Amino acid sequence: MSDGFVARSLEETSFWSRIMKEHSLFLGLGFRAEDTVLIKEANHFYRIFEDIERRVHSFSLDVDPVTIQQFNQEVHTAVCHIWAFKRKVLGLILSCKLPGQTNFPLLVDHVSREANYFRNRLEELNQGKLEPLYDAIIDENVFFLRIMADHAKFIGHLLDPSERKLVEQAREFSQDFDQLLFQARDIESMRPQSQTGPILNQFLDQNRVSVKSLRDFKKTARDLIDQCRIKSIIHPLLADHVFREAERFLEIIDMFENSLTGKGNNSMIHH
Ligand SMILES: [Fe+2]
Ligand SMILES: [Fe+2]
Q1: Which residues are within 5 Å of ligand 1 (an ion), measured at CB?
Q2: Which of 17, 63, 78, 95 has the fewest Cβ atoms surrounding its Cβ within 10 A?
Q3: Quick one: 136 and 267 in the same domain?
Q4: Which Gene3D superfamilies does its entry note (predicted)?
């Protein structure tokens, strides 16, 4: 097993298990009062990921890697189950079986994509699979830019329509990130020829500027919601949740930037 396997595993699981726990809460809140079975299922996943989170924090870094490999496998199974639950809910919503529930279909799809991402991450960690740096840079950015574009759309639609200025700002972020996503997909389709140091460097720089400004917007929104200064139907925890995901994307961009400038062409990393 590679160096840093334990630290990397615990770090990923610590971040994403909290995210999965909160998704369960958001899904649960969006169901109708009569959807008791779905609410129970959501609560069940909440407890599962709450427990995983607690266990992650109980491990120390000198734990036997085999223990963590087994733990990753167990978390992987839980993530597969919550992914299936999210896709089932999406199916129910899109076939109009839950009229009046309040989670947007795109949000349900979005949280299932995040579960899928976490699941892949756990597989890569356990298999010790290393993705070449230049591929990782493109794949991670394509994934996260879409996540950011979705967040801007959710915020825009969950703010009260009377918050005209903020709704407009959210719409601008949505367009900015849609455009960045298209650019990222262009670079993706031009690979491997697009995978030069200067092009990827510029790609990261450009994305970083927009992610920082969206991160700041989310932080402001979160604080305004906490202080009850704006009108919206955004759960305070959702505001913090999307802020943390932007922070994570920024950390990943910085990590890539360091690998690009530090290690050169052939570096392979666990991202
Ligand atoms: Fe999320
Ligand atoms: Fe998200």
Answers
A1: 19, 114
A2: 95
A3: yes
A4: Protein of unknown function DUF2935
